[in-house]
Amino acid sequence: MIPETFTASLWHATAPPAPSPPPVEFPARADVAIVGAGIFGLTLALGLARAGVDVLVVERAAIGHGASGRNGGLIVPAFPRLGPSDVIAKLGAPGERLVAAIGGSASRVFAIARDEAIACDAVQGGWIMPAHAPRNVAGFEKRAADWARHDHRVEVLDRAASAARIGSDWWHGAMFDREGGHLNPLAYTRGLAAAALRAGARIVTECPVTAIEGRVVHTARGRIDAERVIVATNAHPETPLAGIADQAVPLHVWQMASTPYPADVVARVLPGSPSLSDTRNDLFAVRWTADRRLVIGGMAAILAGAGERLARRNERRIAEAFPILAPVRIDKVWHGRASLTPDLLPRLVETGAVIAVTACNGRGIGMNTILAEALGRYIASGDRDDLPLPIASAPRPVPKPALAAFAPRALLPLGRLQDWRERRR
């Protein structure tokens, strides 16, 4: 059993308070009912409400209680392990639209934060992906050329240039995308909720959905009748629609924050405050916060006691990569759940009046944003050319989902061994 850590996170300690929505009477009616008050659901609610649609968002816990409010806050305008040509080969014409959208996804997030005056410590300092081993550098030129063919510029840095950009010579080179960055994800999610409420959307929290039957959403407080129902719970195990959660494999991820560093030290590590995630199988993603803490993520093969073990392990990893930061002291640790699909691409399922989206594969902030805005256009037009994904008529569960759920933890030691071997070649 993993302890609940939502209120233990740095984001919870530093984000502005969540808005207090006006009460909603049940039974309720809406043009569109959205299940899930995370980044996807709230971005969609904001856009629909601005267009005059009567929207009701229902959330089982607090606003941003899921992955939207627990992740590391990195905004990455790229796909995990896939280039644009890979995506188009898998998806065809919708893939071309998805490539164009994801390339601009980070800038879109920052524009929303700016336009809605969301206080979320947003910093568009870029995103850097350095190579932990020499063999990884060779693929950077190819990937950058692939993005250039789709009108998105990515810089390739040699070892000296990457060392200057990162403040460490531990890596062998890097790709750098100036459009990336980071923010406080819980503050951003709460800010989206406030903006959606101002636009006329309704939000109900602490209200679990017990079942969805066509256009009827059954909740702990009563029923909601809607013309459209959007399930925006990603791959949460309690997703109230059969088969949706089983389309992806769950990932247990811990985020943690160091104690604050002096300003002169911060200026020498990740100058300009880019976000960083490298090429290792074993997650290494770091970024600075507004109060000069370093936030880093991590995964564990054994869940029991993982938070404390990962904190000590990441203290060593940070000190190895950035000796100037030693000794590293982590004082906040919190747990979240991400998800992976077999092809590392999100899913869109439409069954009658119900649409479900799932699995952002570690690219949640940007991917949720562009998918939510595209879905809003589709709801208004009915034109599938507005969507950057093909629509499936039924979920596609991974084979043996209960067994597959253990795969990431089982394979993690092998991934760490591969990282170690590649590093020493």
Q: Compute the number of strand runs.
A: 18
- Residues in helix, %: 25-40%
Number of helices: 13
For the biggest sheet, the summary is: 8 strands, mixed
Oligomeric state of the chains? single chain
Ends: how far apart?
39 Å
The Cα radius of gyration reads 21 Å
Low-confidence stretches: none
In terms of DSSP E residues, the strand content is: 15-25%
Short description:
The chain is α/β, with parallel strands linked by helices. The protein is built from 13 helices and 18 strands.
Would you spell out the secondary-structure blueprint of this structure?
Layout lengths: L9 H5 L13 E8 L3 H12 L4 E4 L15 E2 L8 H8 L1 H11 L1 H11 L11 E4 L3 H15 L6 E3 L1 H8 L7 E4 L3 E2 L2 H15 L2 E3 L4 E5 L2 E4 L2 E10 L17 E10 L4 H4 L8 E3 L7 E4 L5 E5 L7 H16 L8 E11 L6 E5 L2 E5 L5 H18 L19 H4 L2 H17 L2
Parallel strand pairs: 1-2, 1-11, 2-8, 4-13, 11-18
Antiparallel strand pairs: 3-7, 4-6, 5-6, 9-10, 10-11, 12-15, 12-16, 13-14, 14-15, 17-18
Helix pairs in contact: 2-8, 2-11, 3-4, 5-11
